[in-house]
Structure formats: structure tokens, C-alpha cells
């Protein structure tokens, strides 16, 4: 038997113009063995509570910028990120048109059972949710999230899938006559609030020259590591946006490491493209290519190399990444593709992809039927999870569908018949019954976007192997001098609106997702 409770969130207080925040994450797991012959039998309890990040920020209206202090992640449009403690001043991207603002990562995958999906970065949990069996997409991460994200999918049967994704960044463009910039300084930080290495500083800027052209560049480094970048971008209007840049790094390793000793110099070349095709209901969210010479190092790689006990895991050589989504409305077809390929100078390449094809059609008097096929591959730590998922669904009454779902690959084959019903804009549930690995399986999933919290419930039964149940709650509390309220929340630590309805209950307030009702 096993019981697990996990959570993460943000607490904070506003003091005048300052926003003081602290991120936390916790996990409690209790396992009990009923096998008297098991030499490791008995109870095992593991629990963890961590304040993962302390930070504060305030707006600088006269500069159209933001000042941030404390523990942070280097969100750069040029350089690879890392955790640090210090301060930064950066222009506010809210002044930009939507097509030039940051890109919010799109995370996709396939769950074999009802599963918990955790998104983390450098050990810090930034998102956690529960998903039903089948393909899933997470599209509500903020556009401030960048760099490499670690995805962990914990199935109800105990299996775990893990993989990394490299988030894309929009071409670093700026309106003509304006300048975007970031200035940062501090000390790199390991997990657990421990600093490593010496004091570093860095800056980057993008200048809108004229006629859609932008010139950008930056520098980053400390006593033994320096890197500099220069690039040019062009807003092609209806044809999208494109950018090209070159980064040079100089690294000095004073002691023998897995990367050698002495000075290393290398270059990295990158091209990126982004485009919305509104007329075709499609979007090339990002398409990019990066080539790095063998002796090129990022700041994060330099920090790892400075540790004499660090095992060399491979220098990046090439990275291809693309995200594409298109709806062929007249043909009733939609296509989604997420593809990443990494090659290295000293180890085998890695390829991750998720491709989904869907077709919507009518058959006689039955309208709005659909069939979808998903192929996927996720590789991490020399292990690959790959397979195919197929689904055929048809309407069943009002706001309900019945479906056949099959998942084949990576040693797990399952076939299920499902029933899905949307009760209203805020509530839906799903029931499935079938076979998994030649054993009967039954699972259910319920989701409700309430005014106080988002509630997800799940239950699973797998003949002869396990029975499980799960509960997920996501919400927040806001307390001001004018009053307080519990509420549903989308982005941890994000903007909130407190409304005085003069005692009138059930007034709907619409925004992102289902309406919230006054109490």
C-alpha cells in the first residue's frame, strides 16, 4: 500500500510597490509492505518540505521596467539560464505587441493511466496537475518560463516517465526606435539556497533600428568565464519573424575536470523563426536550429565543469526544435507536431516528438464523429518511451461522447471503451473500462472549475495489481484591507481581482476558463 501527498505554491505580501514572494513545495509518501517474507518489509515514510525560492520585485514605471531581487532564474533571450541569487532590471514585455512577446511553452505527452504531471526547472517545481489517461497538452504556463524544463509523469500503476524539453524563445525583436534590455548580477546558486562560483554580471539588449530590423547582443561572465553574443532580427510582417545570432565563449578551467584543464574557446550559431498563419487557423510557434562547436560552453556547463567531481554528460552539438499546429477547417483535419532533436559531441543523440492527427466527420445521421492518431517518443537517461495512441469517438446525447481508445507501445498495451460528459462549462467527467496488459482495468476522472478551487478526482482499478484514488486541488487565498476571499487561480503569484458585489451572490465574472461567481 502506498499513500502520497504533494503540493506546491506561492505565498506573499504586497508592501507598497513591492511584491514579496516565497515559493514552496512539499511531498509526503508512506509505503507499507504486506509481504512478511520481504526483507525490506514494513513501513517506510518519506516527507519533504522546502521553501524553494525567496524573491521580491517592483515596477519602475519611469523606465517601463521591473526590478527583481532575491533568488531567481536567468530568463534570457540570448543565453542559457541558471539559478542565481542577486538582482536584475529588465524592461516589461507587456509594452510589446502580442506577436513579439514571450512564448509560453507548450508541453505535450501521453499518460498510460490517470497520472500526475510535474514540471520542474533546476529542481524547483513550477507546475503540477492531474491528467486522465491518453494524450495531454499543458498550455497555461506563463510566458516568463524559459530554458530547459524537466517533465515527470507518475502513473497510477507506479510507472514513471521522465524527459526534458527545451523551451523555445521568440526572435529577440523590438519596435523601431525602442530598446529592450536586461541587466543582472549576483552569484550562481545550487539547489537548497547554496551559492556556487564567484560573482557574475551580465547584460543584453535589443534595439529596434528601422523598417522591422532589430540589432541585439549581450555579455555574461565572471572571473573565469566570459561569453558575448551579437545578432540581428527582422519582423517580416505577414511572413513572420526571423533572427540569427552568434555567441562566443571563453572558459578558463584552473583544475583538472571531466572537461579537461586550461582555456577553451568556442562559438555557437542560432537561427529562429516564428509565424502565425491566422488565415489558415495555424501557427508555427517556433522553428529553430542551433549549432555549437565542441569547445563552446554555456554558463551552466561551466559551473558543472568547475566541479571536479562532476561527470561529463556531453557537450551540445546541434539542436533542432519545432512546434506546429494547423486546422484544415474545410477538410475537418487538424495537425499538431512538437519535435526536438539533440546531438552531442561525445554521446548519442536524443530525439523527442509528439505528433497528433485528428479528423472530424459525419457518418449518415451521426454528426461530429472524430478519429485521432498520436505517435510519441520521449527519451531520457538512455531510456525511451515510445508508442501510438488511437481514439475513435462519437456523440451520445447532449454534451456527451462515447469512444474507443487504444494505447500501444513501450511494453504497455491497453484498449478501453470510454464515456465522456460535460455537465456544464465548469464540470466534466470521464469513465473508461477495458483491458491493460491482458487484465481488466476500470478508471474514472472528474474535474470541476469551482469559484473556490479547481478540483480533480480520479479512481483506478487494475485487476490483480492495484487500486488507486487521487485528489487534486488548485486554488488561492487573497487578503486585503478591504476584505479577503478564496478563489481559483491559474498562475501562481499572478494578478488577482477582488470585487465588492455589495452582498449580491452568484454574479458571474468571466475571464480565463469557466466563470467565477461571487459569494
UniProtKB/TrEMBL annotation:
Record PROSITE patterns: FIMBRIAL_USHER
A GO term, aspect molecular function: fimbrial usher porin activity
Subcellular localization: Cell outer membrane
Membrane topology: Multi-pass membrane protein
Primary residence: membrane
The keyword tRNA-binding belongs to this UniProt entry's keyword annotation: no
Gene3D superfamilies tied to this protein: 2.60.40.3110
One cellular component (GO) term of this entry: cell outer membrane
The keyword Amino-acid biosynthesis appears for this protein: no
Family matches, as Pfam families: Usher (PF00577)
Swiss-Prot/TrEMBL keywords: Cell outer membrane, Fimbrium biogenesis, Membrane, Transmembrane, Transport
Listed name of the protein: Fimbrial usher protein YfcU
Natural source organism: Escherichia coli
Amino acid at each position: 500500500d502506498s499513500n502520497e501527498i504533494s503540493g506546491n505554491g506561492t505565498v506573499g505580501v504586497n508592501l507598497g510597490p513591492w511584491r514579496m514572494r516565497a515559493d514552496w513545495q512539499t511531498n509526503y509518501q508512506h509505503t507499507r509492505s504486506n509481504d512478511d517474507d520481504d526483507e525490506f518489509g514494513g513501513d517506510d515514510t518519506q516527507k519533504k518540505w522546502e521553501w524553494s525560492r525567496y524573491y521580491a520585485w517592483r515596477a519602475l514605471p519611469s523606465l517601463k521596467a521591473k526590478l527583481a531581487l532575491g533568488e531567481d532564474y536567468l530568463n534570457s533571450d540570448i543565453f542559457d539560464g541558471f539559478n542565481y541569487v542577486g538582482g536584475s532590471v529588465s524592461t516589461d514585455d507587456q509594452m510589446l505587441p502580442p506577436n513579439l512577446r514571450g512564448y509560453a511553452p507548450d508541453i505535450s505527452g501521453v499518460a498510460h493511466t490517470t497520472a500526475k504531471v510535474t514540471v520542474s526547472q533546476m529542481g524547483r517545481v513550477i507546475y503540477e496537475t492531474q491528467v486522465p489517461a491518453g494524450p495531454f497538452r499543458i498550455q497555461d504556463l506563463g510566458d516568463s518560463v524559459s530554458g530547459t524544463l524537466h517533465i515527470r509523469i507518475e502513473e497510477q500503476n507506479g510507472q514513471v516517465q521522465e524527459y526534458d524539453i527545451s523551451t523555445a524563445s521568440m526572435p529577440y525583436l523590438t519596435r523601431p526606435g525602442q530598446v529592450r534590455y536586461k541587466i543582472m548580477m549576483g552569484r550562481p546558486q545550487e539547489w537548497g539556497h547554496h551559492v556556487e562560483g564567484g560573482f557574475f554580471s551580465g547584460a543584453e539588449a535589443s534595439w529596434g533600428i528601422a523598417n522591422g530590423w532589430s540589432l541585439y547582443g549581450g555579455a555574461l561572465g565572471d572571473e573565469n568565464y566570459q561569453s558575448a553574443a551579437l545578432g540581428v532580427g527582422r519582423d517580416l510582417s505577414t511572413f513572420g519573424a526571423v533572427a540569427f545570432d552568434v555567441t562566443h565563449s571563453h572558459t578558463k578551467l584552473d583544475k583538472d575536470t571531466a572537461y579537461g584543464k586550461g582555456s577553451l574557446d568556442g562559438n555557437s550559431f542560432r537561427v529562429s523563426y516564428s509565424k502565425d498563419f491566422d488565415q489558415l487557423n495555424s501557427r508555427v510557434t517556433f522553428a529553430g536550429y542551433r549549432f555549437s562547436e565542441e569547445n563552446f560552453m554555456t554558463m551552466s556547463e561551466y559551473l558543472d565543469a568547475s566541479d571536479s567531481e562532476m561527470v561529463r554528460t556531453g557537450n551540445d552539438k546541434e539542436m533542432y526544435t519545432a512546434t506546429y499546429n494547423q486546422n484544415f477547417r474545410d477538410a475537418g483535419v487538424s495537425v499538431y507536431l512538437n519535435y526536438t532533436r539533440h546531438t552531442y559531441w561525445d554521446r548519442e543523440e536524443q530525439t523527442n516528438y509528439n505528433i497528433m492527427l485528428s479528423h472530424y466527420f459525419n457518418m449518415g445521421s451521426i454528426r461530429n464523429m472524430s478519429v485521432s492518431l498520436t505517435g510519441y517518443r520521449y527519451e531520457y537517461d538512455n531510456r525511451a518511451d515510445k508508442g501510438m495512441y488511437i481514439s475513435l469517438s462519437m456523440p451520445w446525447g447532449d454534451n456527451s461522447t462515447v469512444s474507443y481508445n487504444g494505447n500501444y507501445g513501450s511494453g504497455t498495451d491497453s484498449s478501453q471503451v470510454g464515456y465522456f460528459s460535460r455537465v456544464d462549462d465548469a464540470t466534466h467527467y470521464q469513465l473508461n473500462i477495458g483491458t491493460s496488459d491482458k487484465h481488466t482495468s476500470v478508471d474514472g476522472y472528474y474535474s470541476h472549475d469551482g469559484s473556490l478551487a479547481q478540483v480533480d478526482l480520479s479512481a483506478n482499478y487494475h485487476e490483480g495489481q492495484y487500486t488507486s484514488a487521487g485528489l487534486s486541488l488548485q486554488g488561492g487565498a487573497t487578503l486585503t484591507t478591504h476584505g479577503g476571499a478564496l478563489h481559483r487561480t491559474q498562475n501562481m503569484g499572478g494578478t488577482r481581482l477582488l470585487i465588492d458585489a455589495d452582498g449580491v451572490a452568484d454574479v458571474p465574472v468571466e475571464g480565463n476558463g469557466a466563470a467565477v461567481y461571487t459569494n
